[in-house]
Amino acid sequence: MREGSLRIYRNLDPWMSLSEFEQVHEDLPGPGALCLFLGKRSLLLTGDQFQMIKRVCQDLMLSIGILSTKAKGCAFAREVCSSRNSEWPVLLSKVRLGIHIHKKGIRCRLCGACGELAGLRSLMIPRGELRFAIRPQVVPSGLISFGPPAYSIPPYSVYMLRRSGRLVYVPVLCSLSVEERIESFRLMRKVRVHEEMRLKPPFSIELGKVIEERRAILREFSRMSVPAENFALYSSVGLENLLPLLIDDNVGEFYADSPMTFAYIDHREFGRCESAVWVTPEVIDRLLAFSAASSGRASDYMNPSIKASIKTSEFHARVSIDAPPLSFEGASVDVRKFFRNPTDFKMLVKNKTIPPEAVSYLLMKLRAGSSFSIYGESGSGKTTLAIALDLETPQHWRKYSVESDIAENITQRHLGKHQVRLLAATGSGEAAERRRSVLDSLLHKSPDYVFFGEVLSESDSRALFQILASGIRCIHTVHAPSGEGLLRRFAYQHHIPLISLSDLGVLVQMRRFDIEGNFARRVVRISEVVHDEPPVEIPPLRDLFLWDAASGQLEPTPAYRKISIAA
Questions:
Q1: Is residue 474 located within the same domain as residue 375?
Q2: Over the stretch 60-102, which tens digit does the pLDDT of each residue have?
Q3: Residue 61 is part of which domain span?
Q4: Which of 160, 238, 383, 522 could make a disulfide contact with 150, Cβ separation 3.0–4.6 Å?
Q5: Distance of CA 303 to the CA centre of its chain
């Protein structure tokens, strides 16, 4: 069946028998086409991979023709001929075994068939190389039309398809030929042999270091294109299935609820999408091992949850994994990526996160030296907005960035800005004391501005208000359902004096909306604390921008209009 650049084969598997191959021989894909096999599972092959299967099947058919004339006098020939209705990988294994073993016998030397078969090149490709080169991609059922790709992240082409009303992210390894995949496999085998012979302990166990060490060794053997090199390197550590999600800057976060499921993603442009990235237990085990190496803490029965920052030259991500017995259906994975090209206000306006008039107000308050509290639910875009604000600070400001376990802010030195980044982990005991000491020390370092990643605990809140009371401008994020709820949390849970709440500057609320199955992040409220003298209760908030459900937009309030007229 033909459908554009897609060939669909129903009730068929790539590991077909030779008789099944003869049935589809007339409907083989052309260059650049994709092949979708609809059987027990939906499997996708590139046209190049199918052409390799074609060459192998044709050589197997030729070998059966050769061996059929020798069947009376050769046990090897009889065995192969009697298995002609088997799946072609099974038949290929028997032919190889015969060539390797039976040719040593006297009768086989007289027969001479093994020598003829050895001249068929496709039959001589080692099994591991062939399996690596033509391994099909598991895709969700229900995909029957592809069309053109949405964009490319070499060596992948990304298709955005619809299935049951939901968008599906489908990365396909289109730009690497079968020969290049085989060459990648051979080169990585050489790298491993080199490591076994040359490297001495202690070995690097962090992913970024492993990749760069292998990259250096790989370049001693061959020069490959960067996409092919990255595919080979991440294949060598067992993470090739996740590679498109890791290197695609449009993917902000991806999840796998359990092994043997498809990952789903939060896309920068399309929101929450399903994906055709199949997550196996082996992939999760590799990711868990590298996360443990990065965090310096093992994941075991007593500590089934792990959270780590993994950074390579291709990506920087925060990995959270919950393993059994905590996650009793198998390990669950949440990988949040930090964009190498962070979202700025221009992009936030383009994707309708915030209107231009509200951006102008925030930038005016930033230049005037106001502090910012950005609050909302998890995954609502708080850190994205905080970084966009931080990018707008003047170049001459001296800035400190203080974050918890994982650095979410980006380095800005290449932008000509003065920035010191500090990592002070949260926790109890020694870690909490160290974090408190780091925050207290800021008062003696003369910063113009502090990026305080996330306020998590009472000690964080106390440090925050100590910084604000000292006249240091600050931007921070915090989880809270509303502005009033945030003030109550500070006052009653974290025991901040009511008079100190007036030190807060601009409060910005983020919210995540579910729009036709896709998540959209929006600024829904911008307000300021009303200063009462002296405060006898939690101070009220003056709203300057509010979300209008009817128009689906953030609208300025009369209070903001008065400010604008007065200005």
A1: yes
A2: 998 888 888 776 667 777 888 888 889 999 999 888 877 776 5
A3: 2-135
A4: 160
A5: 24
Distance CA 309, CA 292 (A): 10
Which range among 262-271, 414-423, 478-487 has the greatest average pLDDT?
478-487
DSSP 8-state symbol, 492: I
Element (H, E) at 347: helix 345-350
| 283 and 369, same domain (yes or no) | no
How far apart are alpha carbons 564 and 567 in whole angstroms? 5
Residue 148 lies inside a defined structural domain of this protein = no
pLDDT for residue 294 is more than 70: yes
User: Do residue 169 and residue 246 come from a single domain?
Assistant: yes
Single residue among 310, 337, 364 that ends a domain in this structure: 337
| Count of the separate structural domains present in the chain | 3
Describe the crossing of helices 207-221 and 226-236 by its angle, rounded to 10 degrees: 120
Nearest Cα neighbor of 502 from 494, 491, 511, 518 is 491
What is the average pLDDT value for the chain, to the nearest integer? 85
Choose from 6-10, 306-310, 542-546 the range with maximum mean pLDDT: 542-546
Judge if 229 and 87 occupy the same domain. no
Note whether 218 and 196 are same-domain residues. Answer: yes
* Coil, strand or helix at 26: helix
pLDDT digits (tens, 9 = 90+) for 217-263: 999 988 889 999 999 999 999 999 999 999 998 898 999 999 999 99
Residue 140 · residue 42 · CB < 8 Å: yes
CA distance 9 to 18: 15
Residue 552 lies in a domain: yes
Q: Which helix (H) or strand (E) holds 544?
A: strand 541-548
- Report the predicted TM-score, pTM, of the whole model to 2 decimal places: 0.80
Q: Are residues 198 and 286 both part of a single domain? A: yes
Instruction: Report whether pLDDT(335) > 90.
Output: yes
For residues 180 and 256, membership in a common domain is answered with yes
**Confidence category of residue 532, pLDDT binned at 50, 70, 90:** low
Q: Residue 56: how many CA atoms within 13 Å on its side-chain side?
A: 29
CATH number of the domain residue 388 falls in: 3.40.50.300
How many angstroms separate the CA atoms of 194 and 204, rounded?
15
Q: How far from chain centre, in Å, is Cα 373?
A: 28
Do 506 and 363 have their domain in common? yes
The b/e string for 196-233 (b: 16+ C-beta within 10 A; e otherwise) is eeeeeeeeeebbbebbebbeebbeeeeebeebbbbbbb
pLDDT of residue 4 exceeding 50, the answer is no
**Where is pLDDT greater, at 145 or 313?**
313
Q: Which residue from 170, 167, 132, 134 is spatially nearest to 153, judged by alpha carbons?
A: 170
Ramachandran angles phi, psi of 521, nearest 5°: -105, 130
> Of 337, 362, 394, which residue constitutes the final position of a domain?
337
Q: Is residue 487 part of a domain?
A: yes
Q: Say whether the peptide bond before residue 202 is cis (omega within 30 degrees of 0).
A: yes
How far, CA to CA in Å, does 269 sit from each of 160, 249, 380? 11, 11, 15
For residue 252, the SS3 value is strand
Confidence class for position 276, pLDDT limits 50, 70, 90: very high
User: Is 21 part of a structural domain of the chain?
Assistant: yes
